[in-house]
Write a structure and sequence with these properties.
- It contains seven helices and seven strands; from the N terminus they run αβαβαβαββαββαα.
- The chain is α+β, with helices and mostly antiparallel strands.
- It has a single domain, classed as 2-Layer Sandwich (Beta Polymerase, domain 2).
């Protein structure tokens, strides 16, 4: 599948309809929180219990998810056992690029991020979005130059929000 137009709300609608438990992380979460940085993928941290893995697989199938960047002909079976065996997957879907992480850098995974996340309304969808502090921590832990730059932007945003009350 070739890359599709980025439509994160479509992906979120499908995952919510399948009752998947997740927290939005990455660039899109930063954007929701007020960052001006543009992103072309949706990053999610997902709960790794068996029931949620089954729901996530159903949602990914509905989104026509295929591995992104994998060599042609690479055998890949989208199933709960596959997701359980790994923790980082990058997909191209009918709603654009979607990355799912079981335990993002610098975190212990879904439960930790969900405790600090906030429920935010996005065009009628109520979704869990990682806190600014957790987003910064993940960016710093990832350590890539672009992540460190974004950590600085998010830190400045946090400072501005804190000072404005």
């Amino acid at each position: 599948m070739t890359s599709k137009a980025f439509d994160p709300l479509e992906a979120l609608r499908v995952l919510q309809a399948n009752e998947v438990r997740f927290v939005i992380i990455g660039g899109f979460a930063g954007r929701v929180r007020g960052s001006s940085t543009v992103t072309n993928d949706l990053d999610l941290c997902y709960a790794r219990d068996e029931e949620n893995l089954d729901r996530l697989v159903a949602g990914l199938r509905e989104l026509n998810a295929e591995l992104r960047g994998a060599p042609a002909g690479l055998p890949f079976r989208l199933g709960a056992e596959t997701l359980e065996a790994g923790s980082r997957f990058t997909f191209v879907t009918r709603a654009g690029n979607l990355d799912i992480l079981g335990a993002p850098s610098g975190t212990n995974g879904f439960d930790e991020l969900d405790r600090n996340a906030e429920s935010i309304d996005l065009d009628g969808l109520t979704v869990r979005v990682a806190s600014l502090n957790d987003l910064i921590r993940m960016k710093v832990a990832a350590g890539h130059p672009k992540d460190l730059i974004e950590a600085g932007i998010l830190g400045a945003l946090r400072d501005e929000l804190d000072s404005s009350g």
